[in-house]
Amino acid sequence: VDLDTARQELEEFIPHVKNISDSSIKKMAGRDLMRFKEFKKQGMAVKFGRFTEKENKQIRKNVEEFLALTGIDSAEKLLFTSRYPEDKDTIHRLKTEHHFCEKISEGIPRPWRLIYYRARKIFDPNNYKGRYTREEKEQLKKYQALHGNDWKKISELMSRSNLSVAMKFSEIKSAINYGPWTEEETQKLMSAVKDVMRRKLTTENPSSLSSLEQSDTDLWIDREKLYQPLPWTEIETKVGSRYWRQCKQKWNSILTSKLTRGQKLNRGTNGLRTKITLIKRLYETKAEDASEVNWDELSNAIGDVPRAYVQSKFYRLKVSFVPLWKRRTFSEIIDYLYEKTLPDLEEKL
Predict the structure, then answer these.
(1) Mean per-residue pLDDT for 127-140?
(2) What is the pTM of this model?
(3) Which residues make Cβ contacts (< 8 Å) with residue 302, sequence separation at least 6?
(4) Domains of the chain
C-alpha cells in the first residue's frame, strides 16, 4: 500500500492520523492496518488511553505464550534485548521467525506500538523499585550532568526505567516551592500554557491563531483544545519554581474555575449534588474498568468542567467512602458507592 492510501485507510481508525509522521504511517500500515480491519469486522473499535485490567491480562498471556513457543527464558530478555548482548542475535531471529508483532498484539484492538510499550512497562523489573534514596538522587544528578537527557543510557546505569529517571530528575533538578501559588507564578503558568498552545495551534492550523490574539478574553481557545495533553516538563521549565505535576494540577483548577465561572462545585449543596450525579452516571455506564468510562461526557453532566476534575472527584469519593477500596475492582467500587453511599448522600441533600 502506498503512503497516501495507507494514511487514508488508517484515518478511519485513528482520527489524529494527519499528525503522524510518514515513517510511523509506514510501520502502522504493516503492523496495524489488517488487524484494525479484522477488529472492525468483529464490531470492535480501535482504543486509546488507559489499558484495562482485561487488556493487561491479555498482554501477559501473549508474552507467556510467545516465551513458551520460542524457548526464550524471560520476558525481560524478550522485551529488553539490549540488556543481553550475548543473546541478542538469537532473540532477534526467534522474534522474526515466530512473528513477534502479531503474537504480542493478539486480541487487543490498539496500535501495536502502544501494546509493545505497555508490555515493556508491565514486565520491566526496574519499574517498581520504590522510593529513591538520597544516594540515588545524587547519582541521578551526576549522570544527567554527564549524559544530558539521554534517559535510556541513565536508566541502564541506574537500573531504573526510562520514565522513572526522567520524572525523578524533573522533580529534583531545582528548589521547588510547595507553598500557596503566588500571583506571579500563576501568571507565569498561564503564559507558559498559552505559549505551548499557540505553537501547537500554529503547527496544526495556522488560521486558528487569531483566536489566541484576544488575550483579554478568559476563554481564549476552543474548549476541546484545552483538554489536549500538554508538554508539562516544558511548562515546568517556563514557570521555574514548580514541579510539573504541580503545574498540571494548578492548570486544572484554573480551568475548572473559568469554565464554571467560579461556582463552588465542591461545597455545600452543590458539592452533594455533584457527588450524587457522578455516582449515578458512573453506575449507568456499567464500566468494568476506569479506562472504559467516557470522562469527557461525565464532565459535561457535572457542569462543563475538565475531565481531570471529575477523575479527582471520583478518587476522593472512593477514598472517603469505600472501605478497603484498594482490594476492590473498579465495578465493585461503583456498586458500593451506588448501593451504600448514594442513599446517605441523597438523604443528606
Answers:
(1) 83
(2) 0.52
(3) 265, 274, 277, 278, 309, 310, 313
(4) 3-123 (no CATH), 134-173 (1.10.10), 183-207+219-260 (no CATH), 268-348 (no CATH)
